[in-house]
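Continuing the series of single-chain predictions for the mutant panel. This is the parent chain; the variants come on the following pages.
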Amino acid sequence: MTTLWIAVGVLGALLVAFCAGSFLLLAMGRVHLDLGWGRSLHELGPIAIDVAAPRELVFEVLSAPYVGRASGGAEVEVLARREGIAVAAHFTKVHFYTARTVEVVELDAPTRIGFRHLTGPVPHALELFELEEVDRHTRLRYGGEIGIDFFVLGRIAARYWVRPQWERTVRAHLADVKGRAEQRADRERTREFGGNA
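Parent structure:
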């Protein structure tokens, strides 16, 4: 009888390890699961920031990783590129692991950049960055949606884990873009002012 309980315990431990490993691989984007079972859609954003830089410059900073220019440390690998479109893998640090997503990136200079999810931790994601000129500044708006399967479990995961983490990452990225764009704009204004002196 003891041998039976040991076997049940070992099988239970293996099952738990398998489930935990599978979940981690899914969260990391190494396994893509798109079943469509009980999918729920969840809004991302809206998030808006004002950047003290011209719209063309903000677009250039935002699009740099996808058009072959230095990306300021962004973890992006461009897999394919044509004018106005790219397919890119994004590597995002999340707690103790790195999540990988692959997306189609549509570049419409200088007004918008759209992202359509191909593979990664969630089965569906659409994102849009829009740039609007406002009094010689740029208003940068972000919005989108994610879709997660598995009925109530997916809704809970989206509400309490995926969406908050996703939006934190976007806010950090936008703050980085704002900082880099404003620094470049300041340097250009200083150079222009110095040239006119």
